[in-house]
TrEMBL record:
It holds the Pfam family SBP_bac_1. This is Extracellular solute-binding protein. It comes from Paenibacillus albiflavus. Keywords: Signal. InterPro entries: Bact_solute-bd_prot1, SBP. It comes from the Bacteria.
Amino acid sequence: MKKKKLVTMAVALSSLVLASACSSNPSNVDTQGTPAPAETATGEAVKLVMYSWKAEDKAAYEKIIAEYQKEHSNVTIEFKPYKSTEYNTILKNSLTAGSGIDILQLRPYDGARALADSNLLTPLDDLEGLSNITPEHLAAAKGSDGKVYGVPIMLNNAIIFYNKNLLADNGLEVPQTWDELVKVSEALKAKNITPIAQSGKASYLLSMTHSVIAPSQYGNNAFVNAVLKGDTNFKDAKFIDSIQKFKDLSAFFPKDYIAIEDADAQAMFITQKAAMYINGSHRIETFEKAKLPFELDFIPGLAAQKGEDPSIVSWVDGSYAIAKSSKHQAEAKKFLEFIASPKFGQMYSDELNRVSPIKGVTPNHPLLKRMTELTAKNTTPYFMLTHFGSGNPTTKTTFEDSLQGMLLGKLTPEEVASTTQDSADKWFKPKK
C-alpha cells in the first residue's frame, strides 16, 4: 500500500504544469542560504525556506520580506528562486524528500491540484485574508477535495506587445483583426523588419502565442464551454483553423526562431529589430528595467470582426502554499496571511508591475490599469493551462510539443488537433 502511494505521488508530481529593482539585502533575508536565523528576545528563531520559479523577482521579494520582518524579527526567510524550466523537477525532488522546503510557489490549476491530491500541502481554508480573493481566483489553488491550498499572488494576461513608434513611423495602423495582423506583418517584413519576435525553443511559449490569436478563430468562450461540456472537442474544424492560423503566423517570426531563447526574442524587440512580441503581461517589468527607447503599447487580442471588442486572455499565474512536511506550520501560515493582505498585494504590484488578485489593490502602471479594465469587461481563459493541465504528459504539454513538431514540418494542423484530443481522452471527463 505504501509503495502504491509513493508511485501515485510521483505520477502526480510529474504532471505539474510547465508554464513559461535593486535593493540592499536585509540582514535576515537569506537569499544565499548562508546567514543563520536571527535570535530575538521575544520569540524563537525560525528559518523558512521559500521556493519560487521567478528568479528575476529576487530584489523585489527582498524588499517585501524585509517589510514583513519589521514585525516578525525572529523569522528568517530564505527566498530560493529557480529557473522556470527547471523548477518542477527541483520542487518534485524536495517534496519527495520531505525536507528543506516550507513555502512553495504553486503552478496554477492542475499543477496545484496534483500536489494537493498527493497530500503534500497544508489546507488553508481557515487562513485569515482569503476573503480578500474571489472564489474564481482561489479555484486556481484548490485540490480535488474543494479545499484551498494556495494564496494566489498574480493575474496574468497574454497579449501582443508592440512598438508604437515603429508602427507609426512606417505608416501602419494597429491591427485589430487577424486579416489586419497579417497585412501589417507583411508590410513590416517587406521593409526588412521582423514583424514578431517569437521564440520556439521552449514549446510553452508557442501555446501562449496560440492562445492570443486563437479565440477569435474558434469562437471565444462559446467554444471553451462547448469543449468542457463535451459538445465538441479539439478536432473541431474551428480549433484546427486556429492551429492553421498559428502556422501561417510563423512566416513572420525571426529566422531560426525554433532555436532561439525567449531572452533573445525579448532582445530583438527591445532593440527595435522586431515590431511586436507576444507574451504575458508580467513582461512589462522586463521592459521597464530595459528602459525602452520607444513607446510601448499592447493589443489585447484579435476581434472576430472589425469594430468588435476582442477578448483578452487571463489566468491566475501562481500562488503560495505550505509544504505539509514543514516543521514550522504556524510561522509559514502567518507569512501566508501577510501574502493574502492588501499590503502585500500593493507592494507586489508596485515593485514588480504585476496585477494582484487581492481586492482593493490597484496597479499603478497605465498599461496594467488598462489590462485590468479590459479583463473585467471581456475575458477568455488560457484554455490549455486552466483546463487541460492533467495527464502524463499533460494535454497542455502534448499540444505544445505538437505545435513545435508542426513548425518543424513533422505534423499537420489536423494531426496536432488529433494528438491533443487523444491525450485529453485519456483523462478528461466532460461536465454536463
